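Researcher: I'd like a structural prediction for the single chain below. Treat it as a standalone chain; there are no partners to consider.
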Amino acid sequence: MGYETKCRARVTDAAGVVREGDATVLLETDELIVRGAARIKIPRTAIQRATVRSGVLTVTAPQGVVAMSLDADAAQKWLKKIQEPPKRLIDKLDVKQGAAVWLLGINDETLIGQLEERTTALSRGRRATSCDVVFVGVESIKDLDRIGKAMGAMTDNGAIWVVHRKGPSGIADTAIFAAAKALGLTYTKVARVSDTHTAEKLVRPVASRTRQ
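Model: Treating it as a single chain, here is the predicted structure.
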């Protein structure tokens, strides 16, 4: 999940055009995104400089200059976040070293590659058992049945990540939440997987888990 705030933003784009207004600003894994009248997207790798003065955070890149009007504390927090190296996908997904992982309908090469670095207990078959984490690919309504299969394969304290396409061509998160609720699962987290896909984390409620 990205870092987000609402503030007054002033953007001067590469052509020198200035736009200003109320904005929603998001710091994602790969991009700084300004939504609203002063909209712009800046890849994090393109950011050349970030400075704070009198509660205004200024971010400079070839695509343009973004000035965000924040209070002093918020501006410093945003500056720190921008200066931090972004988390790798595998770390956002809470996969521990050596975890037992099942891939069900997953073909994202970046995700698979990072999982292979993190654990050797990686299953790609049609069935699995005693999994700490199950990644489920959902591209259509019929694929929602995979969530039930994943639940049957995971440990009591395990987790399911439902990976689906963003936007109107993908499965709505509300459909995923409804399927999860019907199975007695709880939604806890969302993570960006790629430019096209996102993932929702599902777990058993603590009260329903087997007590040791």
